[in-house]
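[agent] plan:
  1. take the single chain provided in the ticket
  2. run structure prediction with default settings
  3. attach structure tokens to the ticket
  4. add a short note for the reviewer (M.T.)
[agent] executing step 1
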Amino acid sequence: MPSDGGSTSWKDRGLEVDVRREDLASPVAGPLIAALNAELTERYPEEGANHFGLDAAEVAEGRGAFLVARVDGKPGGCGAIRRIDDGTGEIKRMYVAPCFRGRGIGARVLAALEAEARRLQLLRVVLETGERQPEALALYRRAGYVIIPAFGEYIGTPLSLCMEKRLR
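[agent] step 2 finished; step 3 output follows
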């Protein structure tokens, strides 16, 4: 993923999909993140369930990226990568709108995030997902991620599953 705001585009299954960097505070990002949070609240209604956030500084150039997938010109998914130490990045805020699921868009966003992690010279990528998100777990497993012990803010969160992938 070029750091100059370039994009990765492809046409598949009759859809034109473009994955590119987007400002986290943009009017495009806001509705996607709100939809993600609503879905997480529905899947995890327990009191105290935490839908961990993301700060714009964490995805600033040189530290990470927030990417949006536009499907036939419409925002259809998103994801972020943030550096958490010298060699490790964390995938955050992965989401694909329900009407676009099952078409490989999540895999394309994930691949673009991994490309960004490589550009940032990260050696591994970690993430947190939940046990009630079988689609996400399947996506990550297909992409080569494996379960690891909870890390950082996810330690002690019983419904969280943490995963990693070595990039080199």
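[agent] step 4 note for reviewer: The first strand starts at residue 7 and ends at 12.
[agent] ticket updated
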